Amino acid sequence: MMRLDLAAALALALAGLTPAGQAQPAAAASAASAPANTVRQEYGKPLQAAQELLRAGAAKEALLKIDEAEALPSPTPFEALMVQRIKAAAAFGAGDIPGAVRAFELALASPLLAGAERRAVQESTIRLAVQVKDLPRALRWFKPYFDDGGSDSELRSLYPQVLGVSGDHAAAVRESQALVKANDAAGKPTSESLLRTLGASANELGDKPTYQAALERLVVVAPSSDYWADLISRVNARDGFADERLRLDVYRLMQAVGMVLEGSESVDMAERALAAGQPIEAKRALEQAAGPLAKLKDQAGLQKLIAQVGKAAAQDSATLAESERSALAASEGNALVALGLAHWSTGAADKAAALMAQGLAKGGIRRPDEANLRLGMVLAGINGRGDAARSAFAAVGGGDGAADLARLWTLHLRRSPAGK
Fold first, then answer.
1. Do 1-148 and 152-222 fold alike per CATH?
2. For 132-188, how does the pLDDT look when each residue is reduced to its tens digit (9 = 90+)?
3. Judging by beta carbons within 10 Å of its beta carbon (0-12, 13-18, 19+), is residue 65 exposed, middle or buried?
């Protein structure tokens, strides 16, 4: 997933080593009496040679010099620490990542390693362990790293991912949600990878509300047909959703978010639009689905439907002006709302929105939640009308599914031109 920078590893390994020329002579400094932060000459000589070889890019040769130092008896705590730090860099340079991790862990066992230096070694250990997919070892150091004050944002985001891949889905959800909450508080977006981790682990736990919440964020952060298809299908399948009555509205949302309807879905959409008194929309649905429709087996039935829809659409188009006069004269606004949808189907979204708003204001609407949902849909397609669309969606209530669709439209609006 992530790679440790070799230059950083070398700098970490070489920092703090007293050069061999400044070390106390072996005869004058036993392990017990040697100064705390120096190495004796017998250790300094092979370690200094290893440093020079590392600088020259000869990591494998450096490892041989480190072997010489490791073979020496009675190292001081500082000498033992420096051997492992330099060995970690040499192993890394030689391509022995597991060996580098083991050396870093031995360094972390030293009480002399503290503060920022300790956190840097912990970071390197975690990153390298993840790189070689040694996830148990990586997880061993995440919590100590954070407890010691580690704050690397990349590692913080990586932690729940490693937890999820390791099978600790409850912890992955907990850590992911904490990061999402912190991002929200700071006004920062949450990455797609973290939201995918949250959703995947919630799904493994059977936590449907958390999974759907992750999907709702994903369609805003990184909208795709796959995310939208999953989200819409879950909303559509929930208990109490009036699918028969709202199926046409589901198709409308699917098209708006960029999903391509299958041939059978386009036929169903056209038939429902025709039955709802919107033949122009039915005709448009069939015209936009020429490719998928060509794959249907029942081409004779399709041609019959196309002819029926075409005839009804032509008649509807020819009488739009007359229908408008009649709708304006009506005592309630249902006809104006329906007429607005007909104009929307022709591409006249501004006029459609005006007629629908007029119909809602007139009152007597049979299903005001659905009327507001469809007004919001029309406004969502008009640049600069995002606030009006959100107001329409906010007016949608009830438990039959219209409010669920309004919420999804609001999510889509955050990415559409009208919502910006």
1. yes
2. 999 999 999 999 999 999 999 999 999 999 999 999 999 999 999 999 999 999 999
3. buried
What residue ranges do the domains of the chain occupy?
1-148, 152-222, 260-318
Question: Where do we find the tokens 């995440």?
Answer: 142
8 A C-beta contact, residue 103 and residue 128:
no
Separation between Cα atoms, residue 178 and residue 189, nearest integer Å = 13
Dihedral in degrees, nearest 10, Cα atoms 44, 47, 50, 51: -80
Give Cα 129 to chain centroid, integer Å: 24
Position of tokens 């795709």?
224
- Cβ atoms of 65 and 47 closer than 8 Å: yes
Residue found by looking up tokens 């705590």 in the block:
77
Fold of 152-222: 1.25.40
Alpha helix (H) ranges present in 73-134? Answer: 77-93, 97-108, 115-131
* C-alpha radius of gyration, the chain, whole number: 34
Per CATH, which fold does 1-148 belong to? Answer: 1.25.40
